[in-house]
Amino acid sequence: MDQDEFIEQVRIRARLNSRSEAERAIAAALETLGEAMANSAAMSLASKLPGEIGDHLRRTAADPEVPRIPIEQFFERVAEREGVPRHAAITHSTAVLKVAGEARRSAPTYVPAESGLSFANLFSGFFGAAARSA
C-alpha cells in the first residue's frame, strides 16, 4: 500500500469529505498513538507505514520530552489535535488504525496495558494478539 492509497482508504472508511481531512485524521491519530506506545514499538511500526505516514509516529515517539499518555486520554487527544468532537475522533482513529494495521507486516512488540476504554477491543485488528496479552 502506498501513501496515496493509505490516505484514500482512511478518507473512505472515516467518511471524510477530502484528502486534507483524512491527512489531519491520520496525523492526529498516529501522533497520539506515538505518545501512548513505547519508543521502540512506535519506531518499528513507523518503518512499516508508507511514505511520510510513519513520520507522525516518529515525531512524538522520538521526543523524550513528550510524556507518555494513558490510553484513557487517547480519544481526547486525537479530538483536540484534529479539531473534531470526541465521537468523530473515535471514528477517524479507528479508520486510521485499521488501515495502518493492513499496511504493516508485523505487530509491534509492546502496547500499553488495557484500560477501561477497552484498548484491546479498539486496537485488536491493528495489534492482534499483542494487545490482548499486554
Structure report:
This protein has 134 residues and is mainly α. The chain has a single domain, classed as Orthogonal Bundle (Globin-like), CATH 1.10.490. It is built from eight helices and no strands. The protein has helices spanning 3-13, 19-36, 39-46, 53-61, 74-82, 86-103, 119-127, 129-133. Helix 1 (3-13) packs antiparallel against helix 6 (86-103) and helix 6 packs parallel to helix 7 (119-127). The longest helix is centred in the first third of the chain and has 18 residues, at 19-36. It is globular.
SSE order and pairing:
Elements: H1 3-13, H2 19-36, H3 39-46, H4 53-61, H5 74-82, H6 86-103, H7 119-127, H8 129-133
Helix pairs in contact: 1-2, 1-6, 2-4, 2-5, 2-6, 3-4, 5-6, 6-7
Give the CA-based shape. globular
Measure the end-to-end span: 28 Å
Predict the CATH topology. Globin-like
Helical content (DSSP H or I, runs of 4+): 55-70%
Would you identify the CATH H-level superfamily? Uncharacterized conserved protein DUF2267
By secondary-structure content and strand pairing, the structural class works out as mainly alpha
Q: Got a strand count?
A: 0
Largest β sheet strand count, sense and barrel closure: none
The helix/strand order is: HHHHHHHH
Uncertain segments are 106-121, 124-134
C-alpha Rg (nearest Å) = 13 Å
Count of the separate structural domains: 1
Give the percentage of residues in beta strands: under 5%
- With helices defined by DSSP (H or I, 4 residues minimum), what is the helix count? 8
Average predicted confidence as pLDDT: 78
CATH architect. name: Orthogonal Bundle
CATH class term: Mainly Alpha
